[in-house]
Amino acid sequence: MTAAPHPKEILLGAQAGAVSLPVCDHYSGAPERMRKSLQLQAQMQAELGRCVFDVTLDCEDGAPVGAEAAHAALVAALVLAEAAPGARVAVRVHPVDHPAFGADVATIVGRAGQRLCHLMLPKVESPADIERAVRAVDAAGAPQLPLHALIESPAAVHRAFDIAAHPRVQSLSFGLMDFVSAHGGAIPAAAMGVQGQFSHPLVLRAKLEVASACHAHGKVPSHCVVTEFSNPQALETAARRAAQELGYTRMWSIHPGQIRPILAAFAPEASAVEEAAYILLAAAAADWAPINHAGVLHDRASYRYYWQVLERAQQTAQALPAGVKPWFYDAGPCFSPSSPS
């Protein structure tokens, strides 16, 4: 007897190559904080049964000036020695035009590239920067390593669609503070705060462009940091607005206390998960033909949406209704670091 097709085979169509990533990307650069971040990742993986956030070890802001080579060597050693089995660990290197970029890639990717889930490239201005990074990463022996790009200037926002289209790019992140600074004082400092970054027109427009570029090419838009790390309410509000209003599916954390609020903000409500499961089980029973649920017509267009609700619930370690668990049985404890389509 032929097994029933998996929803992904039926529903995703043009979205089949869309990238799936944890909803939180946690950054640390000081040696002790990097070690603690890796330990926390392992602890939460054991607690929740899957990797629910990436750890990105930072060379751009984390490396002391003049000690870039030593910091890169430390990062490579931490990835190899202290990352838990199956952990998702990435590294932010220096920008492609920085003198330390080549050495960063040669040291970190050359030694530990097989353990990395991706490489974060800051201050990307154009697809040419991505190509330069691709050549360096490939020469270091990791031709399948995905790249994430940090969009931090008006020109980069203008080219966001072209950058997101590159086949090695898996995600775009918006760099708030550098974006504001790039305007030469024309945007007030208040726009870097948790309120201003959602109300200033230029900042809001840039965030929407980055999110739209990602969705156009099946990539992951990652929202910027909230620097008020001692204010959990501000973080939760920003995360929910990023997820529900601006279309972001991932967000940066710069403090361990921000990780769980980000997970909660990007997780679907329990009632939404139950509704999605009910609709999709009914659709499967109807061989994915249109159904009537509570007086509302549903077909494959809406089935795709409800499937994505279930995927987000799984990504954020939410409980899944029993009927849909078999669809996720083989998902494994972590996201696989496969390259984007």
What does this structure look like?
The longest helix has 18 residues, at 31-48. By secondary structure, the chain is an alpha/beta fold. Helix 3 (68-82) runs parallel beside helix 4 (101-112) and helix 10 (232-244) packs parallel to helix 11. It contains 14 helices and 10 strands. Strand 7, helix 10 (232-244) and strand 8 (250-253) form a beta-alpha-beta unit.
Shape: globular
What's the CATH topology name of the largest domain? Answer: TIM Barrel
End-to-end Cα distance, whole Å, is 32 Å
CATH superfamily of the largest domain: Phosphoenolpyruvate-binding domains
Order of helices and strands: HEHEHEHEHEHHEHHEHEHHEEHH
Strand content: 5-15%
Give the assembly state of these chains: single chain
CATH architectural arrangement of the largest domain: Alpha-Beta Barrel
**Coarse structural class:** alpha/beta
Summed over residues and divided by their number, the pLDDT gives a mean of: 92
Total number of distinct structural domains: 2
Number of strands: 10
Radius of gyration based on Cα positions: 20 Å
What is the percent of helical residues?
40-55%
Strand order of the largest sheet: 1-2-3-4-5-6-7-8
If helices are DSSP runs of H or I spanning 4 or more residues, what is the number of helices? 14
CATH class of the largest domain: Alpha Beta
Summarize the structure.
With 341 residues, the protein is an alpha/beta fold. It contains 14 helices and ten strands.
